[in-house]
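**Backbone geometry record:**
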Amino acid sequence: MPPAQQALAEAVVEIERHVATGGWDGPVRVFALVRTQAALDAQPALAGQLPAEVLAAAAADPHHLTSVEQEGLPAGDDLEGLLGGIAWPDGVDGAAVTVERIVLPPEAEDGLPEDPEAALAALLAHPQRQDVRIAVGVLRDGTTWSAVRQRALDADGAVGQGPDVVPGLADALVATFR
């Protein structure tokens, strides 16, 4: 794996674990990703706010990323609208988002009631329903990484990950840099 993608993978896994400490049923969360050493060079006082292990990692790896959670985002369930309204300044090297979703097998749509509210209730009660937390990170150059945790297997060691796990969400996040 190229060093920049490795740094992104580590940042995404760290973000997912951080969000997991808050439990389930949380809001969408968005993070800016900055190269740690570049941020330290631009703002030396930042060194006093970072743990020693982060400073050591930044000194050893110029690709090391630090995440900065974006607070005060508008509330709502419209992830496309939220991401469509984000534009990152030049000093941001990447971005990440965490979101919880329900995953169902394709056959779950067979025989659904016509009424939208009844259909939603049926889907939410489906026995094969899986709740997942998705963390997706991207770099400006389009490099991506994702981590997915299932509520039913809620353990750090059971988090699936890879570069192309959630391509649609990764594409939407990359678009925030255009």
Strands lie at 29-35, 65-69, 94-103, 130-139, 144-150, 160-162. The chain is about 30% helix and 25% strand. Residues 3-177 form one domain. The CA atoms of residues 145 and 169 lie 11 Å apart.
